[in-house]
Protein 1
Amino acid sequence: MRLKKIIIIYIFLFSSLYADENNLELMEIYKNLRCLICQGQSIADSNSDFASTVKLVVQDQVKEGKSKEEIYDFLISKYGEWIVYQPALTKNNLLLWSLPYVILVLGGFVIFFIVRKNKHNRAK
Amino acid sequence: MLSNIGVILVFLILASSFLIIYNAYLDIKIKDQIVKKIIYNLSLFQITFTILSFFALIIGFINSDFSLINVYENSHTAKPLFYKIAGTWGNHEGSLLLWINILVLFSFLFLVFNFKHNKKFRLYTLIFQNILIIGFVIFLLLNSNPFSLIYPVPLEGLGLNPILQDPALAIHPPLLYIGFVGCSIYFSAAMASMFSEYKGKEFALSIKSWIQISWCFQTLGITVGSIWAYYELGWGGFWFWDPVENASLLPWFAITALMHSVMVLEKRNTLYAWVIILCLLTFILSVTGTFLVRSGILNSVHTFASDPSRGIYILLFLGMMIFTSLIIFFKKYKKESYNFNLKTRETFILVNNWFMIFFLVTVLVGTLYPIFLDVIADVKISVGPPFYNIVIIPLVVPFLFLMTVGPQFKWINSQNVKFYKTTFIFFGAVIINLFIYYFFENYSVLTNLIFIVAIFLILHCFLDAKQSIYKNKKFEYPRIISHLGFGLLVLCIGINHQYSLEVDFNLKIGENKKINNYEIYFENIKTEQNKNYQSVIGNFKLTDFKRNIVQYLDPEIRIYSDPETLTYEAAIKSKITSDFYLTMSNVSRSEYYNIKFQNKPFMIWIWISAFMIALGGFVQLMLKKNEN
Amino acid sequence: MKINISKIIIFSFVVFFLSIFWLGLKKDNNYDTKNIIGNKISNFQLPSIYNNKFISEETLKENKFTLINFFASWCAPCRAEHQYLLNLSNKNNDIKILGINFKDKKNNAIGFLNELGNPYDFVAGDTEGKASILFGIYGIPESILVNSELVIIKKIIGPINPKQYEEILQLIQ
């Protein structure tokens, strides 16, 4: 009964928005690019001249059928890695991507040993 | 005149700190349980001087006393009164004075409210807290004095950045500072605990409420900051993983972990060393955060005007804090034995801490890595939202699941806990998710999982609520409210992210644009002259063909003269189901305007659920008060 | 003994962190794209502002050195550097100057050059600004010095100042 109520509420609340695929991809790319002359804003958020120029170039390349990675690579070759918000998986960034997981695994071991030690103690 | 009063008051704060430390040190040696009256009196004087000094600065702003450099640099006679006052703490020097106010306030309140606890412990806490206060006051006097004079006295001020002239931003710093300056007191208490050997359950009880208070305000502060960013900054987002945002989030993870661990210390008298580490870590993270924000080491849209000399001082202070706490911790550390059964509440609290530390490390590494790489390899990279989303979101799935299941277990052991209802609810959540998936847009596997566990948590909280009301277990209410808020937050953010419509296009007056079932018609432009700015207002007609609704949105471009800035005010129509968001900016040397239009489902629910999280904490404080 | 090792490790970490922060304070925050030095410029084709002909990278291969300068009639700092461009074009035959007129109208550009003098051997128009991205430009004025193999040997951000002018002269010896 509760389930039914919830379902009805959901249907009522949601509007069916079938977003345009192309537009979604554009916005995703804009959000991953950094505005070089702004203080920490993406191309999507910035109102600067540079941002509007980059948007034009990205639109052209998307129309040409270039993939996201190709567009990022192109801009990185011109402006350096700083322009992309997602750090690449390179030797330089290895520590960045792996450290959180290393800590996760270490933490898991810590908990495992704490609880296991107790089982051991109780078994005695 | 005001400057002299202000500086004298600050020196008086410094003097009272030294006197308090001296007297407390003497009183520790006296082996009774009564704290000498002089210490109370000195503390009372100290808090009085501190509040008065803050008022002195506020008066300076209200009167537009430009003989004070701080007022000159950050205010203007044309500013509305409310923002003149808020300008007091909207700058580096003033906010530093606010830090000191909260340090002193918490010092005083901790002394007074903890009268039931061990005297040596209370006095050591006072000593350490006052050492912190001295550190900050010296910083203020030497480097960032809000009462510095300027001569000749300018006739007009430079004004406050217009983006900061907003009610949400006016209360954001005080709320946030009660959060991460408030954690200074349990940093000091942790040091005191090690010195006075006041451990275990009593220690837990002495700091519990303070952890709770700082957690509540930190949550509120972050939420209000996000609300401000959404309504004011004109990009339609509320969280950007910007270094300054991360600086406020790092202590939040630590305080949340600590809040849960201190329960274990209280109930089971174990995890003492870990609680101490967390107490120390939290304030260390706060000061690190302040260092990142104020030193200019990072590039961010939020930074205060930066000055490297500040950075050097804060770094020295941070270094001293870290080394001192480490040395004392290693000296006093005694190995503990742990008595954890697998299926217990305390084990699941350990799991919570595990995830909190993971999230903390992720955000810390993401924020600091560019600095490290730049210094070591002279390579500049950017770490932004994609990194944090990729690393954190997958782990939120098991986290929410464990967060739902964990509280079902009892302390010490859970022989009789049955999981029939839990399993039933889980399948209910799966079914609801399938409905959403088929009725509305399809989405990724990860999003499926997120929705499932979030709905699972929400539904189970309703079940828990029903059971705890029925059994009159009032102590469960805070947990249920906060966890429900958290589940709702994740669900709403997920829905918002999945179903948002965002488009970016250029339009001339008289043109229109069709997007899905919407049409946006650019009617005209109006200009207006306001008190301290000129505005260019666009009139847009939004037609929703599906629901046959017509709305008008009027975004603004504001041109301020003092200081000369341009801001973009979004037109936002917030409804229960979704928000419409429209910003307009002019394209240079063109008749075209760049328009960003967004439809964002459930935005209001995101704020409501965030407030709900904080609400749980406040309910906890109220329950404890009634208990006393 | 075990505890001592972990103590040493932890202390070393803390010292390491704090040193990085200290060094980080001294580093410059502003990002510039000096990394493109050493890269080849990409192929391009832009219309001349004077006639219907096109200017491409082929034109540049014929020169020993080319200074590619991005400018616009509405750009105030561009006026400040104009003197140095004129000096370069008059004094030296080894270097040619390609002006790329950024987000501007042809007539305004021609008027600008008539008023201040024309240092450019070629002037191309980039009305939408898209070509600037090809060259790794993010603001104006900006200049790139390339050799006959089209390799970038210097990048100047902002108006050319005396020091940079001397450096260009050195490089084209």
Protein 2
Amino acid sequence: MRKILKNLKRKFTRQSSETYPDFASGDYVQVSSESDKTSKAKIVVRPFIIEDFADIKPALDSLREGYTIALINIRPLKERDIVELKRAVNKLKKTCDAIDGDIAGFGEDWIVITPAFAHIYRTTQTENLEEE
Amino acid sequence: MKENGVNDIIQALIQIEEDSCVPKNIREKVRYAYLALQDENCKDLCVKIDKSLQELEEISEIPNTPQHTRAQIWNVVSLLEVFKKP
């Protein structure tokens, strides 16, 4: 009888430890930060610097993939050749239309282009600037 | 309708590629242009056309492009621009 009771007790104690994981018994759960670093994000925010008209090609290629938000620094090209800059911005606009995305200037030196899933927030102040 | 038009454009580009008068670097770019149109990984036709147009615009900037090839490429570019419009 005693043996049977002991066996039953052992069985029940084992079951209870199996049902609840080890970390649940403690006061807190420690989340390792390494797993977050290795997980690959789907959307990439990527900066590009345009020093020449040909430099827009990698930006356009990554935009066409559809997972990149491009931050483009146009300052070097603006200082060098304003006509080339206009050509480059027109090309960027065309590709932006093709991907159904959004394009806007941030300050004087940066352009932001987003794919179709995102849009750029515009205040009434920035809309007035565009109209001017 | 659009798909048929794009197939015609691909045929025109293949003709340019097979032209022995055309320099090798230009033929290579023409190949990239029609491969972009045939790309099955990309579902959106607008994006395919945009990619192809980029390659063709680069060709028209190359100084040693033969005059008749340049005219053919401009013709293809204008056709692609029509398909690109919604």
